[in-house]
Design a protein that fits this description.
With about 350 residues, the chain is an alpha+beta fold. It has helices spanning about 1-20, 20-35, 40-45, 55-90, 110-125, 135-140, 175-185, 225-240, 290-295, 315-320, 330, 335-340; strands at about 125-130, 135, 165-170, 190-195, 210-220, 245-250, 255-265, 280-290, 305-315. It binds phenylalanine.
């Protein structure tokens, strides 16, 4: 029996050394210490021993049990440590590895130009307004001194929603002049960027939807000199120092006098080329001194107050700013084009 116990001890310890995981350990615990285990089987034979032998063997068997239990505990602890070490290594997180970049979009060149324009005007104390694209003819025409029969009111030029030509897609941002006059306290300095709509065929310089930035100042003693000085400064900020501009007389129903402002072509420096259609100049805005009728209709006394306004083509400005040759590139959203900005 002594031998048997010694064998069990030796075999069990050897087997424990080989155990690879907790399942192995459990199996060994059952095999040697379980109810039907080998050690128990030996103990069952104790009855056959003599009275002197019994306590000696009992002591021995207990020693073996204690040794095995201890060995199983040790092995189980070691296994747990090894498992944890493996796990820590496998799940190690290196926070210094650069992440995978998710492709996100970026700003459209026209909106980059618009943000620059906003910054320039905000810096001069202007407020930025937003206004409706579906507009009343009252604001788009009547209150802007363009009475019934004015050519710009024609159905061939304007998108109307109703037979009576009262509700329309605004054809210009100028209605925002009137909306500002009616709602804001004087003096006023605003810009109002947004979409406008006209029945134009799509080509390199036209689109039935395009963007304008309206601008308006109303104060006391405002002159055409303020208009020219401010707009020249804006063009220099936008296109760089030394940008050459010119003002040409023009006509708008809501300004008097009226003008258009050109910027010298960036491609040919004024000599004439395909980009400026041989002109040497690119038209960027219409402007003028606000017509006294418009002020009066909005309840502002033209004897006390005067003002100037402009309407800038945003696509054209962006094209000049980023040297874009064709208007359609701005709307087509070809990723190869957009990625360049
Ligand atoms: N609204 C005019 C246009 O669309 C531009 C303009 C705005 C002219 C303000 C004068 C004053 O052509």
């Amino acid at each position: 029996m002594k031998e048997q116990l010694a064998n069990i001890r030796q075999q069990a310890l050897a087997a424990l050394n080989e155990a690879k995981d907790m399942a192995d350990l459990d199996q060994l615990r059952v095999k040697y210490l379980g109810k039907k285990g080998e050690l128990t089987a030996v103990l069952k034979q104790m009855g056959k021993l003599s009275a002197e032998e019994r306590p000696v063997m009992g002591q021995l068997a207990n020693d073996v049990r204690a040794a095995l239990e201890q060995a199983i505990d040790d092995a189980s602890q070691k296994l747990a440590e090894v498992t944890l070490a493996h796990q820590l290594q496998a799940e190690a997180l290196d926070v210094t590895i650069p992440g995978t970049k998710a492709p996100i979009g970026h700003r459209h060149p026209m909106y980059i130009a618009l943000d620059e324009i906003k910054d320039i005007f905000i810096g001069m104390g202007f407020t930025v307004l937003d206004g409706p694209e579906v507009e009343l003819a009252t604001y788009n025409f009547d209150k802007l001194n363009a009475e019934e029969g004015h050519p710009s009111r024609d159905w061939s030029d304007t998108f109307y929603f109703d037979e009576d030509s009262r509700v329309m897609l605004r054809s210009q941002t100028s209605p925002m002049q009137v909306r500002a006059m009616e709602t804001m306290d004087l003096p006023i300095r605003i810009i109002a960027p947004g979409r406008v709509y006209r029945k134009d065929e799509v080509d390199a310089t036209h689109s039935p939807m395009f963007h304008q930035v309206e601008g308006m100042v109303i104060d006391k003693n405002v002159t055409m000199g303020d208009l020219k000085g401010t707009l020249n400064l804006v063009m220099e900020e936008l296109f760089g120092k030394g940008t050459v501009t010119r003002f040409r007389p023009h006509h708008f129903p809501f300004t008097e006098p009226s003008c258009e402002m050109d910027v010298q072509c960036h491609k040919c420096g004024g000599a004439g080329c395909p980009t400026c259609k041989g002109e040497g100049w690119i038209e960027v805005l219409g402007a003028g001194m606000i017509h006294p009728n418009v002020l009066r209709m909005a309840g502002i006394d033209p004897e006390i107050w005067s003002g100037w306004a402009f309407g800038m083509g945003l696509e054209r400005t962006a094209m000049r700013r980023f040297k874009i040759a064709d208007l359609r590139l701005i709307f087509e959203n070809d990723i190869r084009f957009l990625e360049q900005f």
